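Entry for the shared binder. Reason: the reviewer on the internal report wants the predicted structure included alongside the sequence.
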Amino acid sequence: MDDKGIIDLYFSREENAISETMKSYNGRLLRFAMSFLSDQRDAEECVNDTYARAWNTIPPNRPDNLYAYLAALCRNAALDVIKKNSAQKRSAQLVELTQEMNECIPDNNITDERSEELSKCINEFLATLPKDKRAVFIGRYWYNESISDIAKRTGFSQSKIKTTLHRMREELRKLIDGKDGIT
């Protein structure tokens, strides 16, 4: 069936519009989705989302080029998967970073006043660090860099980065424990 016939099926709200679309474009759309994604299942999910989006947007849209229209829908679905996957990765990394910082910063209802004192204490701590260590600390806890990314950037081994971060957290904990009114 040609594109005009498939589009007419969508306008008639006939369910075989999707099966005809699949017959004509499934392989191309799957290859297109794989150009964005590395996981076959994610790509298949994108293509299925593409069919659902086509069903929901044709009508009112009547595309001149059905494949180009479907490819745009598929691209948007792939970008949604990429955003979701990177958000999950960021969320897991944030949990890891929070656990690391809980070693030195207690999580007991920090008020605005305590937060300001804690901020001053951290800035004081950072000012005492050599430039390379400060860059490691800030990279990890401000920019959320992974251990491997910091190692690549600094030229240190991952083991050295982990040890350095652990020692700096211990130093920061001791500094915070020595201040009244923060914890």
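Summary line for the report: The mean pLDDT is 84.
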